């Protein structure tokens, strides 16, 4: 049986990154991003919805995000959902917190930067480097180059 827990988000960082260290020395970055959705309702009126997501990054990934990303910057996140639970000491109620554990990310547009539109693809004028957290070594490896364009012939269905 195959199971998959995967999240891909493109959004804007909503606050400066908080970088902390565990007693072991491993760095942890906590931050949040906002994603937007636009649609038309039954009457044809344009509607907007903003969703906020809490994220956690570890190790070198956390350090790079904290160093180069700031409030308002766009970022692409590839990660997984993780839910923690605990009992509230005052109310004795069970509480839950769902976060996205960052496995890799890609820099997006910096605040105030415009994207240029070419055909059906959007290209950033900014940095397109991405970083991947390697599960076996805990090391990050940079992948350089712009995202590849997909043509309709490449789609298998």
List keywords for this structure.
single chain; 157 residues; mainly beta; OB fold (Dihydrolipoamide Acetyltransferase, E2P); five-stranded mixed barrel; two-stranded antiparallel ribbon; 1 helix
Description of the molecule:
With 157 residues, the chain is mainly beta. The chain has a single domain, classed as Beta Barrel (OB fold (Dihydrolipoamide Acetyltransferase, E2P)), CATH 2.40.50. Helices cover 6% and strands 51% of the residues. The protein has 1 helix and 10 strands; from the N terminus they run ββββαββββββ. The protein has one helix at 59-68; strands at residues 7-13, 18-21, 27-40, 46-58, 74-87, 94-107, 116-118, 121-123, 130-133, 140-143. The strands form 2 sheets. It has a 5-stranded mixed β-barrel. The protein has a two-stranded antiparallel ribbon with strand order 7-8. Residues 116-128 and 132-148 have low confidence and may be disordered.
């Amino acid at each position: 049986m195959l199971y998959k827990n995967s999240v891909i988000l493109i959004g804007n960082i909503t606050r400066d990154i908080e970088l902390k260290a565990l007693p072991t020395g491993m760095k942890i970055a906590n931050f949040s991003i906002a994603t937007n959705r636009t649609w038309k309702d039954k009457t044809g009126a344009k509607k907007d919805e903003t969703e906020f997501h809490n994220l956690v990054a570890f190790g070198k990934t956390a350090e790079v995000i904290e160093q180069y990303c700031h409030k308002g910057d766009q970022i692409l996140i590839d990660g997984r959902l993780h839910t923690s639970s605990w009992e509230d000491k005052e109310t004795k109620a069970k509480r839950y917190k769902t976060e996205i554990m960052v496995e890799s990310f890609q820099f997006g547009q910096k605040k105030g930067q415009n994207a240029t539109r070419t055909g059906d693809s959007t290209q950033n004028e900014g940095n397109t480097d991405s970083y991947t957290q390697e599960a076996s070594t805990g090391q990050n490896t940079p992948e350089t180059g712009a995202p590849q364009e997909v043509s309709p012939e490449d789609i298998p269905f």
